[in-house]
Amino acid sequence: MQKIILLLFGLILAALPGTGWAQNFAVRVTDPFARAGAAGRAAAAYMNLQGGPDRLTGVASDAAGRVELHETTMENGIMSMRPVAGVTVSPGAATRLAPGGLHIMLVDLKRPLKEGDMITLELRFERAGKISVVVPVARAGAPTAPDAGGHSRH
């Protein structure tokens, strides 16, 4: 009988607004950078995502006509790139968006992206919602983020 009462009490608490069990779906973004690119062309952006559990489902930016989530893969010695529907952010592990793997494609750049510029990306997550990230632009072939003084958005 005590178990039933305890179970009912828990269900009532969970149903009340602002009470019950809450999960923190915060996502932390670190080391963002984009590669330089010419107007009308494409460029890529990279970063690390931590937190979750969550899923990055889309990205927007006023710097590009279209923004897509992509993955670069190697099959039979041939490298290819394809769009992906989303990127999973798992608790306790960093999800890397990096050259040669998962990344953000900025398609049809509205202006040239030059080293030292800053662009804003709006990351859209299933649970965390929208997160705005200021992203420094590195030279075209940069393998890592330029030194941003340890700053990141979350």
Description:
With 154 residues, the chain is mainly beta. It has a single domain (24-138), classed as PCu(A)C copper chaperone (Immunoglobulin-like, Sandwich). 9% of the residues lie in helices and 49% in strands. It is built from one helix and ten strands. Strands 1, 2, 3, 4, 5, 6, 7, 8, 9 and 10 form a ten-stranded mixed β-sheet that branches. The longest helix is centred in the N-terminal third of the chain and has 14 residues, at 2-15. It is globular and about 70 Å long. 24% of the residues are buried.
Q: Topology of this structure?
A:
Blueprint: H1 2-15, E1 27-35, E2 43-51, E3 54-60, E4 64-75, E5 78-83, E6 87-89, E7 95-97, E8 102-109, E9 118-125, E10 129-138
Parallel strand pairs: 1-10
Antiparallel strand pairs: 1-2, 2-7, 2-8, 3-6, 3-9, 4-5, 4-8, 9-10
Shape designation = globular
Radius of gyration (CA) equals 20 Å
> CATH topology, which one?
Immunoglobulin-like
Which CATH architecture? Sandwich
The count of β-strands is 10
| Oligomer status | single chain
Short description:
The chain contains one helix and ten strands. With 154 residues, the chain is mainly β. The N and C termini lie far apart (46 Å).
What descriptive keywords fit this protein?
disordered C terminus, 1 helix, 154 residues, single chain, mainly beta, 10-stranded mixed β-sheet
